[in-house]
Amino acid sequence: MYPFNGLDMGLGNLARVSGAVTRSISAENPTGAKGGGAQAASGTGASCARDLGVGWKVSPSVDMTPGMTYTMAEIEGPGAIQHIWLTCHPNHWRTFILRMYWDDETEPSVEVPLGDFFCNGWQERCNVNSFPIAVNPAGGMNSYWLMPFRKRAKITVENTGTEGTHFYYQVDYTLTEVPDDMAYFHAQWRRSNPVPYKDVHTLLDGVSGRGHYVGTYLAWQVNNNGWWGEGEIKFYMDGDREFPTICGTGTEDYFGGAWNFEQPKGEYGAYSTAFLGLPQILKPDGLYRSQQRFGMYRWHVMDPIRFEQDLRVTIQDLGWRSGGRYLPQQSDIASTAYWYQLEPHAPYPALPGNDGREVV
Description:
Order of helices and strands: EEEEEEHEEEEEEEEEEEHEEEEEEEEH
Number of domains: 2
Protein name: DUF2961 domain-containing protein
Number of helices: 3
CATH class of the largest domain: Mainly Beta
Shape: globular
Radius of gyration: 21 Å
Largest sheet: 11 strands, mixed
Pfam families: DUF2961
InterPro entries: DUF2961
Helix content: under 10%
Distance between the termini: 52 Å
CATH topology of the largest domain: Jelly Rolls
Strand content: 35-45%
């Protein structure tokens, strides 16, 4: 049993004192140094603070120019990131790429478009009220995923778009010992646009090592009429080939809903709870918005899916057709998969370019 080190801060441990150190990185203190905040003499707020000077919100954000990769945080460990807050205009949520590197990695353990990481995959603001991810008016994005590291942590944001913008952020972390059995946080984005006929959307493949799967976010555009969510999610683990160990009963079931998410009758019922949600429902508008779009999350916080050797995750794209038959659909599905594992991790597929990520 490890001594309490400040990493397990559930309500039962909230009153316990530890030797952990609390630090925070933002544009006002880009290194997180003790006593290092509010010293900027120039920055995006300098003009507003010209009558007040240093210490009066001189550098609340950074200018993200096109093509720029900005290092949000670079931290010497051991320790853990405990909270991330950030915001920028929704137009950038698919062209800003969030990456995270642990210890001596040269390839990221997290590589996801900014909006999708925070369950906002459609470049339109949507509030999310869940345990690890919270998005609040008007576009304040929060992550409470625990992200331990032993040597160092690095978080970057790349602006792959053609426009610049102000970018606001804060990274809250602790410096403390990390137990040997703590794994590293990972997240990966994939898109099938469209899903090939009679095929599936793959959320993860090629994961090797030991760990546990902790979450799914799907941005799903339906390209046909009728109910679209009959597909089963499947977890192939530890040598599974043709048949999975875990097989769901339907898309809405996996996300904690039932019967087409229909409530009241004739309408989708949006919901956002601690571990499950359908927070975003975008309807056709009769002009340029021609398809239905949905955003859904499912956190395996209370029921992590553990694997010892390997993991593959797929979901069927399945609706209904005449005669009570299933319809293999060809939807546009973008997924973000979240998991913990011991390093090293297998290389990720190349992230699609701007056209491959564009909301169209």
